[in-house]
Amino acid sequence: MEIKVQSIKFDADQKLLDFIDKKVSKIEKFYDGGIVRTEVDLSLLADPQNKNVKVHVFIPGNELVVERNNDTFEGAVNDCVTTLKDLLVSEKERRYK
Predict the structure, then answer these.
(1) Regions of the chain with pLDDT less than 70
(2) Is 49 strand, coil or helix?
(3) In whole angstroms, how large is the CA radius of gyration of the chain?
(4) What's the confidence (pLDDT) of residue 94?
(5) Which of 2, 27, 31, 92 is the most exposed place for a label (fewest CB within 10 A)?
(6) Exposure of 38 by Cβ count < 10 A (0-12 exposed, 13-18 middle, 19+ buried)?
(7) Which residue range is the domain that position 63 belongs to?
(8) Are 53 and 74 in contact (CB under 8 A)?
(9) Which helix (H) or strand (E) holds 80?
(10) Domain of 12: which CATH number?
(11) How is residue 71 annotated by DSSP?
């Protein structure tokens, strides 16, 4: 699975990129149909929970999008991955019903 990370208006450090790669690569086991690619957008917001993460997961015939805000990028990535696991499982169940 290809994972593309884009940081908007800042440069993400290697530690954050490695964390994202490690966490997002785990969602592949929840969908047998093959995830085509995953795109992760990182941005900063003006509010107190100013770290925004948007994850696009492209599967055959569909695109799943999850967006979360948190105090840290790591927390937002964890929230996105947790939600994506549930979405992929329900998508797999729907597909193979």
Answers:
(1) 97
(2) coil
(3) 13
(4) 84
(5) 2
(6) buried
(7) 2-95
(8) no
(9) helix 73-95
(10) 3.30.160.100
(11) S
